[in-house]
Every structure is written in structure tokens, then in C-alpha cells.
Specification:
Number of helices: 12
Helix content: 40-55%
Order of helices and strands: EHEEHEHEHHEEHEEEHEEHEHHHH
Radius of gyration: 20 Å
CATH architecture of the largest domain: 3-Layer(aba) Sandwich
GO molecular function: oxidoreductase activity
Shape: globular
Protein name: NmrA-like domain-containing protein
Distance between the termini: 52 Å
Keywords: NADP, Oxidoreductase
Organism: Podospora fimiseda
Oligomer: single chain
Structural class: alpha/beta
Bound molecules: NADP nicotinamide-adenine-dinucleotide phosphate
InterPro entries: NAD(P)-bd_dom_sf (IPR036291), NmrA-like (IPR008030), NmrA/Isoflavone_reductase-like (IPR051609), PCBER-like (IPR045312)
Number of domains: 2
CATH class of the largest domain: Alpha Beta
Largest sheet: 7 strands, parallel
Strand order of the largest sheet: 3-2-1-4-5-6-11
């Protein structure tokens, strides 16, 4: 049975990383935070118990040195840097790291290879393909990919998940608004990573799906209305086919903002079928409890009311 005690986190300083570092520390792992040499934001973000090492992500030797003695590497690097993880994978294999968790944490990239959105996610898809190859070549090296759906609390705060317009108390929906999609709070993703590393045998060489809950746009609007006591009327209805068309046009022009159009259509199109079904969910496998949509929206309502 594989045992994981030491964990290096790459790029744990961004939007998601701090939640992963926090949950790993609270689960008892010995965590080392790895940042770019050029990074200016690592020191104030990590808890005191986390050692910080700065390296050049393009230097195999530097990565080999910081990964030596680590049981697992968790990569939370930003989207732009995703392809650079291949050097980290090579260094992890050479350092004797037992588990590599790549920077996925979004839609299931295993399912979109042949879709237009897959062109934008080619870097992530390539890294998971590479991990599969390396695990075949080295029995002691394993990987786990984690799809989590949308960042729920982060997305609600920043963009109302593209549904809730908090400023003018209105809503926007795509198609009927009834299609369910998966979402996870940042803390839940942190717990998912910690629990994967606590269940290394069950999760070895697997691409797994975890979430806080599944929800639809209309369900989100209903809960926001219930908890705020205010109406958020739907003033804009978008069609998923128009979003896909807009995405194609942007992609053809080399504009990577196409991702947002594709993503909104991917999650919300009627019949998309991307909600995580119970039999596909790894929550049970790793002992991760679901969260409650109303409770999480309630936290957002409290925060927005406190800052009003
Ligand atoms: N599901 C969703 O709704 C959702 C939303 C956003 C992101 N994501 C995914 O979640 C993962 C983490 O995203 P995030 O938003 O937390 O990332 P982020 O904040 O953009 O970046 C995370 C860290 O990566 C490092 N980094 C940034 N640019 C880099 C570069 N050019 N080269 C090397 N390292 C760089 C930085 O760490 P240092 O400064 O410490 O080096 C940064 O703090 C990604 O896979 C992303 O696609 C999912």
C-alpha cells in the first residue's frame, strides 16, 4: 500500500492554490510550496508551516532537486503555464515521486478532445496523456486527474457564474436554464485533493470527478431569490448555438476568450449532459461529502450584504 506524507504544491499561490494548501496542511501532510523564481506573491499566502522553495519551472535540474523527498506533487499552476508541467512530470518521475496531480480542476478534459473547446484545452489534455505514458513506463509513478466543474464560490463572487447580475438584480440564462452542471467550492477542491492523497491506491492512474453539487441556472436564480427576498428577473436569454458560433469566430481569429463562450455553452446547453452522475462521481470513493447549494449561496449573500 502506497503512503503519501510529503506533498509539493506548484503554483499554490493563485485563486485555487491556497485552499488546496490549507486543506493539505489541515489533513496532516507536510507541504512544500513551490513558486516561480519571478513570483512575488508566495510568502504572505502560505501558512507558516509550509516551506517555500523558488525555482525556474523550465529547469529540470531545479525541479528534480525540489521534488526529491516528496511523495506527491500537486500542480495548481495557472492555465497559461499548463503545458510547462511536462518538465515537472519528468522531474517528478526521476525524483521518485509516487503521485502527480496535474492542474485540471475544471471541466472533464478527457471528454472534450474532439470539441472546439478541446483545442483551447489541448495543453491540459496533452499533460494527462503524458502522465498516462509515464505511469505505463514506471510502475512506481502514478497520477490522478480531478475534474471539479466550475469554481462555485469564486465564480459566484466574480461573475455571478454568468447567471446572476448582482449589480442590477437581474439574471441571464442560456437555453431553458434547466440543464444541470457540476460545481465545487474552492475549499471542497482542497478537500478532494487531500482525500485523493489519503486514498492513493483507489485513485491511482485515474481521472476522477468530484463536486460540491450539481445545479442548473434556474435553480441558482431560485435560491438567490429565496435567500435575498428579491426578484432577479431573467432579462437576457442566450442560445447555446449562438455562443458556440461566437466561440468559433473568436477561435478562428486567435482570440482565446472563445473559451468563455464555449464553456458557457458546454455547461448550460439543453441536453449537454455534463452533470456528474452518482455512478461517475468519486465523492464516495474518497469519502468526500457533498455540500449544500443553499448553504453556499447563503455565505455569498451574507458577504455581499456585509459589503453593501
Ligand atoms: N473550474 C473553474 O471554474 C476554474 C476557474 C479558474 C481556474 N481553473 C483552473 O484551476 C487551475 C488553477 O487556476 P488558478 O486560477 O488558481 O491559477 P492562477 O491563479 O492563474 O495561477 C496559479 C499560480 O500559477 C503560477 N503561475 C501563474 N502564471 C504562470 C506562468 N506563466 N508560468 C508559471 N507559473 C505561473 C503562479 O504561482 P507562483 O507565482 O507562486 O509561481 C500563480 O499564483 C488551472 O488549471 C485553471 O485552468 C478552473
Amino acid at each position: 500500500m502506497v503512503s503519501i506524507k510529503t506533498v509539493a504544491v506548484l503554483g499554490g499561490t493563485g485563486n485555487l492554490g491556497p485552499s488546496i494548501v490549507r486543506e493539505l496542511v489541515s489533513a496532516g501532510f507536510t507541504v512544500t510550496g513551490i513558486s516561480r523564481e519571478s513570483s512575488t506573491n508566495s510568502t504572505p499566502i502560505y501558512p507558516d508551516v509550509v516551506a517555500i522553495k523558488k525555482v525556474d519551472y523550465n529547469s529540470y535540474d531545479a525541479l528534480l532537486s525540489v521534488f526529491t523527498g516528496q511523495d506527491a506533487v500537486v500542480s495548481v499552476i495557472g492555465t497559461a503555464a499548463v503545458p510547462s508541467q511536462k518538465i515537472a512530470v519528468d522531474a517528478a518521475v526521476a525524483a521518485g515521486v509516487k503521485r502527480f496531480i496535474p492542474s485540471e480542476f475544471g471541466i472533464n478534459t478527457r471528454k472534450v478532445r474532439d470539441l472546439p473547446i478541446g483545442k483551447i484545452l489541448a495543453g491540459k489534455i496533452g499533460v494527462v496523456d503524458y502522465l498516462q505514458e509515464k505511469a505505463k513506463e514506471n510502475e512506481a509513478f502514478t497520477w490522478t486527474g480531478i475534474t471539479t466543474g466550475l469554481f462555485f464560490d469564486w465564480g459566484l463572487e466574480r461573475t455571478g457564474l454568468g447567471v446572476i447580475n448582482h449589480q442590477d438584480k437581474t439574471s441571464t440564462i442560456i437555453d431553458s436554464g434547466n440543464e444541470k452542471f457540476p460545481a465545487s467550492t474552492l475549499a471542497q477542491i482542497g478537500r478532494a485533493v487531500a482525500k485523493v492523497l489519503q486514498h492513493p491506491d483507489e485513485t491511482a492512474n485515474k481521472y476522477i470527478a468530484t463536486s460540491s453539487f450539481q445545479l442548473s441556472q434556474n435553480e441558482l436564480i431560485a435560491v438567490v431569490e429565496e435567500l435575498t427576498g428579491q426578484k432577479y428577473p431573467v432579462v437576457k436569454k442566450e442560445k447555446s448555438e449562438d455562443l458556440n458560433k461566437a466561440g468559433e469566430e473568436k477561435l478562428a481569429a486567435g482570440d482565446w476568450r472563445a473559451f468563455i463562450d464555449f464553456l458557457r455553452a458546454y455547461n448550460n446547453a439543453d441536453g449537454a449532459g455534463n452533470a456528474i452522475k452518482e455512478e461517475e462521481s468519486a465523492n464516495k470513493l474518497i469519502g468526500l461529502e457533498y455540500e449544500d447549494l443553499k448553504e453556499e449561496v447563503g455565505k455569498w449573500v451574507k458577504r455581499t450584504q456585509a459589503s453593501a
